[in-house]
Amino acid sequence: MAKKVLPPQTLLYPVPVVLVSCGELGGKKNVITLAWVGVVNSEPPMVGIGVRPSRYSHELISKTREFVVNLPRADQVKAVEVCGSTSGRTSDKFAATGLTAEPATKVRAPLIAECPVNLECQVQQIVNLPSHDLFLAEIVAVHVAEEVLDGNGQVDPLRARLLAYCNGQYWQSATLLE
Ligand SMILES: Cc1cc2nc3c(=O)[nH]c(=O)nc-3n(C[C@H](O)[C@H](O)[C@H](O)COP(=O)(O)O)c2cc1C
Fold it and tell me: How confident is the model over 81-107, as pLDDT tens digits?
């Protein structure tokens, strides 16, 4: 296979694209679109999110040390774009997108009612990297819409119609390889 050598870049495919809700339900709350997100530990279950210090969400998450990772559906791309192109400093993204903030069970950050999967997270560690800060967080509660579960109680990607991201484009998961 002939290959080209490209400059160093974040070429991973696919990566999820998520809506992270943060702040406090009864106070300042916000939603940010993130693609730099991934599972980093199993016991306890943990995720890492990379957030630029300039983001308003960075300020809120640093303060409360809590957030919720919400997995959007393919038909929520518009909300994903709005939350990824406007700042909560100057606009209420829940109002702008029509997304509903609901109480979580273990954290003060709201979860997004319309997303079929919500992971409540508590920050354990913050790693300062050159462009982003990496928030390493434990998943302390999980919510899944019953309609996206299969007969074994697992999330069925076809029913959930979750989003993936590659090279600035949104893709809908998934084709099952037999
Ligand atoms: C598809 C997509 C993925 C993004 N991923 C990240 C990311 O991983 N980290 C980050 O800091 N910003 C990311 N952004 C940019 C933020 O979502 C954007 O700057 C947002 O307006 C910041 O909102 P805030 O100021 O309300 O926190 C992404 C934007 C899009 C559209």
Answer: 999 999 999 999 999 999 999 999 999
Whether the CB of 34 sits within 6 Å of ligand 1:
yes
CB atoms < 10 A from the CB of 13, how many? Answer: 9
Residue 174's pLDDT band, with cuts at 50, 70 and 90, is low
How far is C-alpha 86 from the chain's CA centre? Answer: 16
At residue 7, φ and ψ (nearest 5 deg) are -60, 155
Tell me the per-residue pLDDT of 137-150, one tens digit each, with 9 for 90 and over: 999 999 999 999 99
Question: Which residue's C-alpha comes closest to atom 11 of ligand 1?
Answer: 51
- Secondary structure element (H or E) that encloses residue 10, with its range: none
- The distance from CA 123 to its chain's CA centroid, rounded to whole angstroms, is 14
Question: Which residue out of 55, 76, 170 has the highest number of ligand 1 atoms within 8 Å of its CB and is therefore the one to mutate?
Answer: 55
Q: Report yes or no: 65 and 51 within 8 Å, Cβ to Cβ.
A: no
Architecture of the domain made up of 17-167:
Roll (2.30)
pLDDT digits (tens, 9 = 90+) for 34-87: 999 999 999 999 999 999 999 999 999 999 999 999 999 999 999 999 999 999
Which residues, 6 or more positions from 133, have their beta carbon under 8 angstroms from its beta carbon? 50, 51, 52, 53, 58, 126, 127
